Amino acid sequence: MRLVCSLLVLFLAAALPAQSAFSFAGESVPAGSRRDFSIPVAAGDTATTIPITVLHGATDGPVLSITAGVHGYEYPPILAAQRLGETIDPDTLRGTVILVRIANLPSFLGRSPFVSPLDGRNLNRSFPGRPDGSLTERIAHFITAHVIASADYFLDLHGGDAPEDLMPYGAYYDNDGQPEASEQGRAMAVALGFDFIVRFNTDGKDYMRPDHPSLYCSAEAFRRGIPAADVECGRLGLAEPLLVDRIAGGVAQVLRTLDMLPAARDTTPVGAPAFITDRSYLEAAQDGIFYPAKRAGEYVTAGMEIGYVTDYFGTRVQTIVADTAGVLLLVIGTPPIRKGETMAVIGQVE
């Protein structure tokens, strides 16, 4: 019986179309192999590298590009990318995975939330980038030209940065003018297995226009017609193993949904998630000290207190009240707060 099964596996493998070599950054990656790249990026006196792994399957299929560490203080996505780079087997992979392990290495090494410590720029507000721009803009340009442009599908992995208490969720980009890419992105987001899915409605958004910067990594992919989904999983800059597992498992399930990996025998069926189409942002009226009364993931009703701000002498200067009913996607979880900063995001559940 074992001999029959082995012959069947060999027959099926032979029946699948083999891939030719994959070209990345001017280098060739043979079918059924993995190759690591350390891409140098320099601007003036500043320099860094982008660690990227290309996993090129033994059989023909689509290209899934994945970015982690666009914000270098979001650790669960970065650690999940490390695991995926070691556990995806090119011999059983159909198609190709381009895995950006840490997009923003200066932010990661500098433990710098949101922005690069080398030029003060936010990589996720810098797309499509410029080949002659700042270091961050040049990183964005390389990812745009070599990672996003090569993709048939795109995933961007994020989490709660250092001050952010964030509820795990998946997200996808949607536009009435791109129904097929929108629906494919939705299917990817559902496959991630989170309880909540946020729909990014891009109708009428400036960043969808070709004469306007895309700003966001996934938005650059989507406006090219590439189905795009995001992961938001992680909180307060903590490297929590359970959340690393959740991201890595979700990405593996996306690969199965795209028929790039064999179905897992023990995969738990994905339940029906709740969808969020609108979000409300609550901002600080002045600098001060923030005292949250709620945590991410809690439901609130309109008028419910979410927290308050005091001045530096303890006098309450602002009470933060929910302006709508919904679930708290994010709450600032550390005391410092600045005028105009978002202190909470409420997702309105369909």
Helix and strand arrangement:
Layout: H1 2-15, E1 22-24, E2 27-29, E3 33-43, E4 46-56, E5 59-68, H2 75-87, E6 94-100, H3 105-109, H4 135-148, E7 153-158, E8 164-166, E9 169-174, H5 179-191, E10 196-201, H6 217-222, E11 228-232, H7 241-257, E12 274-283, E13 288-292, E14 299-300, E15 305-310, E16 316-321, E17 326-332, E18 336-337, E19 342-349
Parallel strand pairs: 5-6, 5-7, 7-11, 9-10, 10-12
Antiparallel strand pairs: 1-2, 3-4, 4-6, 8-17, 9-11, 12-19, 13-15, 13-18, 14-17, 15-16, 17-19
Helix pairs in contact: 2-7, 5-7
Determine the fraction of residues in helical runs and give it as a percent range: 10-25%
Number of domains: 2
Biggest sheet character: 13 strands, mixed
CATH superfamily of the largest domain: Zn peptidases
What is the number of strand segments?
19
Helix count, DSSP H or I runs of 4 or more residues: 7
The overall pLDDT, averaged over residues, is: 94
The N- to C-terminal Cα distance equals 52 Å
Show unreliable segments.
1-14
Q: Which topology of the largest domain does CATH recognise?
A: Aminopeptidase
Whole-number radius of gyration? 21 Å
Strand-pairing-aware structural class: alpha+beta
Q: Specify the CATH architecture of the largest domain.
A: 3-Layer(aba) Sandwich
Q: Return the string of H and E elements.
A: HEEEEEHEHHEEEHEHEHEEEEEEEE
CATH class of the largest domain: Alpha Beta
Shape: globular
